[in-house]
């Protein structure tokens, strides 16, 4: 029998600082809603895995005007949104998505959701890989890394590339693309622990630097001696500010994320802006949805082909899957901001 209700985590209040997960003033609220009847060309999905992405924090930021946000914000009372969730079709009125099909879709933090079949992308098996990789290396993380390096800064064999957040979902794929697909002459990763740095180097980085090390600035200066052509920035904050001083003239910066400031009420800001002027730097912010559906599909195809050619590694250590009771979804999401995961962070509903 098909379910008639679904639990949802909805936004209760927009946090100016770090989200509050439990107790008075909690950011999210757990509610139960009825499941509407299906219309023609709609499907009922059961959510299996939720995608956790730093950008979600910006969708609930009260200090960003909706016109300055690249997507519609999550408003109070709405289900918290999640891109690239993996779900199963449990009821269908569409010929394109039968019952039992796995899809990648924007579902929100819920158990079940009804949506138009055309808005869900069917997950086609790739060898014996877990479908969760279509939320990571073959999904939003991999497409973001590829689009940023290839389309935005046009990295190539002549470039030295520095990648911050190199042990994260996007950064770990960017390392592999830069080194093994684009053939960049040197790839430097930045991560938050020695263990993460070792993992990043195992992916192909020539060196990875621990930004929490007391010698980080000295190590970065040494690694970027002669300066670098490309910086793929996932963090913003102090690392971005420092990297502006390590760029060659006409250097290119792909501004992908700013997780260092997402929970801060007093962002650090940029002190080395003169380097942008003096070195004629090209700083380009980008959002992966700008790629469009056709380009997205092309990039996914290129990533799958690169995997089959042995140029990128798709393995379980490239994703952190956390079995989670529905009541604890917000707690697992907060691992994004505490450095508790390697690669793509996914919530497995149990």
Automatic annotation (TrEMBL):
Name of this chain's protein: Enoyl reductase (ER) domain-containing protein
Keywords: Oxidoreductase
Record flagged with keyword Oxidoreductase: yes
Signal sequence annotation: none
Source organism of the structure: Talaromyces islandicus
GO MF terms held by the record: oxidoreductase activity, acting on the CH-CH group of donors, NAD or NADP as acceptor
Domain Enoyl reductase (ER): 25-347
